[in-house]
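At this stage, I put together one protein's amino acid sequence and its backbone structure tokens, which the following lines show:
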Amino acid sequence: MDLRKVGTKTIRVDLWFANRKQLASVRTVVSHIDNMIVGVTQGFIYKMRFVYSHFPINVTLSGDTVEIRNFLGEKRVRKVKLLDGVSYTRSADVKDQIELTGNDIANVSLTCAQIQQSTNVRKKDLRKFLDGIYVSEKGAIPAE
């Protein structure tokens, strides 16, 4: 595999005599480079909404840990550690929404996945119990 800087804003990735799986890895490398450029220039934002039917979910930030309380009325406190470079903000204009931002898309999306998976409903009918914290919007931070 050959990585070359062609112009001031262009990177060229070449691979010769490759089979199908090796060509797929070229596209993966290009996507990683693109995500790194977007992460450094703009950053990534994931918005998560709280969904509940009866017991309001309480989410707070304590240090670098997100604490989820009162999920389905349970007394257990769920804790999710924020990964490196991920910042947590509570939306002021939208009720029951948090925003996770950062430069590394892998860390931001993994933190969101851990928050969503911590509110999985077990041993109940999933068609009825839809409570949880879900990703509602994701992408690059829009330029202002």
